[in-house]
Hints:
422 residues; 8-stranded mixed β-sheet; two-stranded antiparallel ribbon; 45% helix; elongated
Amino acid sequence: MAFKDKIDRSRAKFNERMNVLFRRGPKLDEDFWDDLEETLILSDLGAQATMEVIDRLRDQATRRALPDAYAVLDLLADEISGLFAEPDPDPFRMNPVCVLFVGINGAGKTTTVGKLANQASLGGRKVLIGSADTFRAAAIEQLDIWGERSGVEVVKRERGSDPASVCYDVVERAEQLGSDLVLIDTSGRLHTSDELMRELQKVVNVTRKRADVDVKTVLVIDATTGQNGLQQAREFDKALDLDGVIMTKLDGPAKGGIAVAVSHELGLPILRVGVGEGIEDLQPFEPREYAEALFGEMRDEVEGKDESVPVVDTCPGTGEGRLEDVEEAPEVETEAGDELVEAEPEEELAEAETEAEEYEDGVEIWLEVDDGSEDDEVDEFEDEPAFDEGDADDEIDAEPVDEDDSEPAKESFRDKMRRWFS
């Protein structure tokens, strides 16, 4: 399955917003640029990245005299792909190297470690896994299963142990085995807690001091968290000086633009992306492929791939309604013969005006009042018995109603508005 098919849900969400944007027409005016900016921000691209993209597109539209909004759309993927930071080098291709995985609970750190270990082991590398998540239930057992599948040793301690001591043991064991790729899973840390972040700093510092090889710190982010993921990246990078990011769950209902926001604003490369549950669904990140899958190849989807259907401007001079399909003109039978011809728009307009005039004439006739018509009316109460004055004594005298005690009339919303703003 192609990469763009893997992130189909994210792409569909962005396309929905773009469809709404381009329904307004292809005219390049201030409204278009404002709407495009709003669309990108709502796609989690981030304010900083969005403004830069808009500025670049505006500049190109001026210098190259782009004819309409669709020409701008063709350049969008190029501008997006240019915002990503490049990994130099990719930590997972270094040899030897030790990689620490950090992030909040539920981001997918343990699963990512297991998948990377499996891929590297199949590639012939000497891999060692460290289980430094000693707090979460079943975290150690989960890594044990991944180790068995991949044929990779897992270094661990009993639950509740000091994570820094586990990292120390992992580095020692890696030196004994001559491992060239060490993957250490750490406990989930909430980025809003200063105390938890200090504990994580201790884990990273102990590992860096003990290891004789390069130690890289990689943040794992759940793409569905949106702009909260950007805030996570800010805090973790501030505390740990990150070397890269892995985006997981891009196959879910993520808006997709969060990868651009994190990489561009913080200058962090996106190393891998998770687009499914399978081992092969953790893939190396290619900025151009990602931008094309998410933001490219949209012109056909926006305009409609069926070129046989005419697309016209239904409001000449305004550019509105470009995407509305033109229905075939109704066929009418001429008086000259049985041949069917297409009705002209002028004829349809004349017919509509005639019908409107006939309707107005009918209304006027209906509203005319005959002076003698009242004498001809039938008295509906003719057959009712005459009123007997003697019956009046049997009636119960009704007490007069005090006008002051009557319930006041309900004030309409329009009257309220008039009173408020008068």
